[in-house]
Every structure is written in structure tokens, then in C-alpha cells.
Amino acid sequence: MTQSPPTAPPGQALGSALRWLGIVPFVLFATLFLLLPTMKIVLGAFEAPDGGFTLAHVMQLFDGPIPDYYLISIKISLASSAMGCLIGFAMAAAITLGGLPRGIRAPLLTFSGVASNFAGVPLAFAFLATLGRLGLVTVLLRDWFGINIYAPPISFNLLSFSGLTLTYMFFQIPLMILIITPALDGLKREWREAAEILGASGLQYWRMVALPILTPALLGTFALLFANAFGAVATAYALTGSSLSIVPIVLFAQIRGDVLQDPHLGYALAFGMIVVTGIANGLYVWLRARSERWMK
């Protein structure tokens, strides 16, 4: 005689359904505003005007001035990510391992949480009001110390590669602090004590123990910061307008219909950005997983 498989009690089945119900808003939001638009961009990049399949639009990314747009975007992202990682790591190490008063840690992390999300028009205006040609710091340096940062030999220009890189660092450094602080907290005191017992100096401990353990986290955070800077558009557009041709600004102009006049080329530009940021985020996830295994 065949027995039917046991069925779960109605109350247990209802509880399981309610648990899954909690993620429905997230699934809907991700589908409507992430997955479907991404699919539309990818399909549009390979769609011919007559509706067929073509590689012509993607191949245009390697012709004319478009590679230069990607190159300057990559350079700005690399520069701001490298400086953000370096300065952010030093600040995070100071509050976790540097012996600073514990009261400094909470305000710094709170500020980092706010500053890492401070971007767009407000950030551009803040830098223009501070370091613009008539900004507060610019005027103070000129009137009080006789230093004109916009004149040789400094020749600083906020609406340039160096100016945009400096602006991006405002949110890159706090993001680095927020991400790397837990990794620094994961360094066990026993590891340093064991190194000191074996006669290692502080420099040797960092070079042979701490940094090898932190390397996956550092590289993963660098990849995340790169993707964060590469996809930023509001800050760059509000600060430089069209004077600096980075990919997000060119894509924004294409969406508005100011240049190129080819919607499928716009899809191809967006597809290229998806590929670059996808690789960076994929590296971050992979390296983050390796870092967490080390910490365990």
C-alpha cells in the first residue's frame, strides 16, 4: 500500500509563506528598476534599426572619440579610487589600531555614512563655493597668503581632471572607511602578539601578516570604489557640464538628444558601462568572499 507523503501543518505552511512575502517588495523593485532596464539596454545595444540583430553599435565603441571618453572615465575612477583607498585606509587604521581615543570613532563613522552618500548637485556646489575661482578657500589663500591656486605654478582648475578627481574623493574616502573598518577589526590581537614573540617588528608584522590578510578586502574595496566613481554622473555634470567628456556625461547628453542622435549608440554606451562596472563589482564580490574566509 502506497502512503502519501506527509503534509506540513497549515500553520507552518502559512508561516513559511509569510517569511517569503517579506522579500516581495525588494524583488519587485529590483525587477522593475534594475533587471528590466538592464535587459532593455543590452537588447537595444544589439538591435538594428529594422529590428534585427547587429554588432555595429557595439563596434562603434571602438571608433572615433568614444574610446577616449572611456579612457578618461577610467583614469578618473582609478585616480579617485587609489587616493580614496590610501587615505581612507590610513584613517580607518588610525581609529581601529592607532590608539586614538575611542570617542573619535563613532563621529567619524557617522560622518562617513553621511558623506559617502553626499553627491550630485549639492556636492558640486559645495566644491565650487569652496575651491572655485571665487570660492572661500581660494579667496582666503589669495588675500591672506598671496597664493593663487589658479595661477602658475599651481594652475589648479576645479573643472578639470584633477578637480573632478578631488571632488570624487569626498565620497570615496568615507566609503573606504566604512568598508575597510570591519576588516581591520577582524585582525586578531593574537596574530600581532605571536609575531612580536617571534621577534617581528611592527613593519614586518604589517608586511608579512596583516597586509596579506587584508589584501583581498583592499582590492575588493578598490574595485567597488572604481565602479562607484565610473558610474557617477550627477556630480560630474553639475561641476563640469560638458567641458569634460566622460562616458556618463556623453551618455546623458545622448539620452537628452544633444549629440550623436542615435538611440542605439546610446544603448551601446550604456552597455559598455554595464560591462565595466559589472566586472568591477564582480571582482569586489569575489575578493570580499575570500577576505571573509581569511577572517574566519
Q: Would you give an account of this structure?
A:
With 296 residues, the chain is mainly α. It has a single domain (66-295), classed as MetI-like (MetI-like fold, Orthogonal Bundle), CATH 1.10.3720. Helix content is 72%, strand content 0%. It has 13 helices and no strands. It has helices at residues 10-21, 24-45, 56-59, 66-96, 105-115, 121-131, 136-145, 161-185, 189-197, 202-230, 234-240, 247-256, 263-295. The chain is globular and about 75 Å long. The protein starts with 9 loop residues before the first helix and ends with a helix. It holds the Pfam family BPD_transp_1. Residues 70-284 form the ABC transmembrane type-1 domain. The chain crosses the membrane at residues 17-36, 76-98, 118-141, 161-184, 204-227, 234-255, 267-287.
Estimate the strand proportion. under 5%
| Largest sheet entry | none
Q: What CATH architecture label applies? A: Orthogonal Bundle
Low-confidence stretches: none
**H/E topology pattern:** HHHHHHHHHHHHH
- Tally the beta strands: 0
Full CATH superfamily name: MetI-like
The name CATH uses for the topology is: MetI-like fold
Mean pLDDT: 87
**Terminal Cα separation, in Å?**
51 Å
Helix content: over 70%
Radius of gyration: 25 Å
Give the CATH class: Mainly Alpha
Tally of separate helices: 13
Shape: globular
What is the SS-derived class? mainly alpha
Number of domains: 1
GO biological process, one term: transmembrane transport
Membrane topology: Multi-pass membrane protein
Subcellular location: Cell membrane
Protein name: Putative spermidine/putrescine transport system permease protein
